[in-house]
Amino acid sequence: MIKQYCYDVVVVGGGATGIVAAMAAARSGVKTAIIEYNGFVGGNVIPGLPLLGYHNGNGQVVVRGIAYEIATRLQEMGAATEFYLDPITSDVLGVDPHWFKYLVTKMLQEAGVDFFLHSMLSDTIVEDGTVKGVMIQNKEGSQMLSAKVVIDCSGDGDAAVHAGADYVYGRQSDRKTQVSTLVFRVRNIDFKPLMQYFRSNPTQIRPWSLSDEVATQLMDQMETSEVFVLGGLQQYIEQAVRDGAAYPRANLVGVCIPKFDQMIVVSSRVEGVDPNNNRSYSNGEVAGLLQMKDVFDFMRDYAPGFENIQLIDTGHQIGIRESRHIVGDYLLTGEDLTTSKQFDDVIALGGYHIDIHSPDHRGIQSQKVSTYEIPFSCLLPKGLEGMLLAGRPISATHEAMASTRVIPIQMAQAEATGVAAAMSVQQSKPLRDLSVKELQSRLIAQGAELGQGIGRRTFEGAGEGTLH
To answer: Which domains does the chain have, with CATH numbers?
Structure first.
């Protein structure tokens, strides 16, 4: 007999996106559960990934709410650096992944969220186009979790696809996706020789040209900062390749955190990993781990200050940058981001550059953006009621998702889904019939940034308009 549970809101996926969606729903007063196949929540932050994208290029905070609360609570614990601005990524915040795991678990428990860890989604229950819950599988066998709203934070749109949602895989033109990377961390770095090298070779800090003024300001900051982004050392890589080294990229990508005496290395490059195909996913994990040794050897043998590095740990799974884009009520495009298009149903902002780890070559494509808006309509899977999306699988193009995919911006989307799901339950209304003004007012009231804090927009109180 299948065990059954009854919830108002079920969140599929316990990564950084899912935890915020679940917190937002539970804090709004509805009975909430979170499903995660690992034995912990936190997703890609757990290998040590930094948080990028809280600020725009002008240094204004564009992501607040629960995402910012998590950051400040980590800082208060001594488990995160200060925010540092960056000419390419806008900002960077280094975090201790173990304390991040502890904190978000505690916050979920405080909010009253029920955990279903070590559990895999096996199906989505749909009746007449309305999602009614999900089926999960774990060591107990199958269980059914009924729900009035399901929020898909799986990263790959698994719950939506099981419900019958249409999707585009990767780039519209050829189905190619951004490359995947197995993250690892090293310690025992001598940052002084690295800084001396950059002073003499400022073109080696990043793979893109920086003006002399910007490069000098960045180096001055790096000298004393608790965290900084690294994306260069091209000339050493070229030399290593000439010497026969099997280095997979055109540059060394990662984030140095002097505060914790470590670097998070994001430099393996595995093409064509499909997380929805087990053989592809498995082979990608193997390739990423084997590349880790090639990257480690390069750093130890060539990079100044890395001669005595030690491996701290490797990621629990390979990092997937892109897979399915669920077709939603609105398709967010790269042009929407670069032109700062405004939406009546804005529920989150972003300001991170369009950052494509290209499947076509060993480099990175980057395009600057100003502050942009994310509409609620791209979180609604077309043709389905009772379901919301947040994170990688929202309705966005390859180019747009290359910016919206970073963790704080995903968290901002997730907070909107949690609040909207609670409103739908409490008002007994379909998601598309909710008042967009009320949703925006609720988000602003609990600290989210929709443009009101940076002089971009003025919001009045809740109104009667719907999300149609």
So the answer is: 3-175+322-454 (3.50.50.60), 184-314 (no CATH)
Three-state DSSP class for residue 26: helix
Residue 165 amino acid letter: A
Residue 319 CA, chain-centre distance (Å), reads 10
269 touches 181 (CB < 8 A): yes
Assess contact for 14 and 38: CB atoms under 8 A: yes
Region for residue 175 given its phi and psi (left: phi exceeds 0; alpha: psi -120 to 50; beta: otherwise):
left
Which residue in the block uniquely carries the two structure tokens 């607040």? Answer: 64
Strand bridging mode 120-127 / 130-138:
antiparallel
Mean pLDDT within 95-100: 97
207-212: which pairs have CB atoms within 8 A and are 24 or more residues apart?
207/231, 207/232, 207/234, 207/250, 207/251, 207/363, 207/364, 208/88, 208/366, 210/87
pLDDT tens-digit readout, 423-460: 999 999 999 999 999 999 999 999 999 999 999 999 87
Write out pLDDT tens, residues 221-253: 999 999 999 999 999 999 999 999 999 999 999
Instruction: Give the number of other Cβ atoms within 10 Å of residue 115's Cβ.
Output: 18
* Token representation of residue 242: 């000439």
User: Quick check: 340 and 197 in contact, CB under 8 A?
Assistant: no
CB 150 within 8 A of CB 12: yes
Q: Both tokens of residue 459?
A: 């919001």
- Alpha-carbon gap, residue 231 to 198, rounded angstroms: 12
**Model confidence pLDDT, tens digit, residues 159-210:** 999 999 999 999 999 999 999 999 999 999 999 999 999 999 999 998 888 8
Q: pLDDT (tens digit, 9 = 90+) per residue, 375-411?
A: 999 999 999 999 999 999 999 999 999 999 999 999 9
